[in-house]
Structure prediction request, 301 residues.
Amino acid sequence: MKILTSRICSAFLILICSQNSLAFTVKISGEGGLIGEKAESQNCKALEEEAFTTNAGGTVYSSDQAYSGSRSIKMTIKEGSTGFGSFGGTLQFGKCEHIAGSDLVKGDEIWIRTRMYFPKGFEFNQGRNKFMRLRTYNIIDGKRISEGYNDLYINGHPEHNNFKPFWFIFEGEQNWYYIGNRDDYFEFGKWKTVELYLKLDNKKESEGGNARVRVWVDGKLIGDTGERRTLKTETSYVTYFSLFTWYGNEGSPKTQSLYLDDFFLTVSTPEATDDYGNHYIGMGNPAKMTSPSSPNNFVVQ
Prediction:
């Protein structure tokens, strides 16, 4: 049985804990609350959906834009702000008790799909932009110690040579993985769907492990590698997910907003598969666009 929130396995229980199954799913959309209200709740509940549990001070339900239905989630950062505690939102799995939310350990899998809309004129920071983030911890000498994030970044500068729109890193290993091409980058004023998959393991494929990172854009697989660790040790675990929550050290050059819709996070294997047979959430739930054809010359790393 999974232990909620601070679930730690001692060495002789690692195998048992890592093979237990999870089954929780989080859905957040503009239809989940009243216009103008914060999309945040300490117990993870919002009407008939879930909500961010913290760090969503500038995140509200809005009718300005929508991918499906008539509303979305509006995320605003003020001029000069770094966005800490206000830009985006954090989902603490253990606080989602109504859906049996739990920490994730070695062997667990997670799929996270979000649709993003950046209005024309939106300005990214001067470097890498924190985007989809899963924080890892461990218990050392009885104390909870952070071991860094599994971070998917947005590279906001397509004018650079050899441009790659997404960068992935596990901070516990410090080994970058550059993903996609110019066609996969956001087009301002239009919706883009991005999905991230992780298989949690402290060993890479070449080490006999099962660590895996995949990224899809608009249903197209643009990155797939088994050569990046996603945990530091066998007893490491993931306790929450963050979307943005930090703009940059320099602060936003102006007050600006972006939009999210049809956010879907699950640790239960989705039924849909991509053109390579990989399970993924895909463009459904609900769908508005048809899935694209397979990418040309795609290579699994």
